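As a warm-up, study this chain.
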Amino acid sequence: MSNSVEVKIHGQSFRLRTEADELYVRELQSLVEGVISDLEQLGRKSRTVDSHRIALMAALQIADDYLQLKRQVEGSKAEVQQRVHALVQNIDRLLE
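Now compare it with the structure written out below.
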């Protein structure tokens, strides 16, 4: 069942059709608004406040955060697999 949720990001309203609940969509909205706000503050200091540029920089920042977390998870998963393999080998040795 899809929901229709209206969000406002950077002064623009969007109606989203989503399977996620409204609370989750609001959390996404808040995250994006926070990144945009941070970038706008930096842009004011350097006098570069183009809304398209801000939106692209926000997308890059969020993508960077996502990829870093994904790499951490993949690294953790590989470490767990190595530990499980070592434990299985130890158990096999003990059972021989």
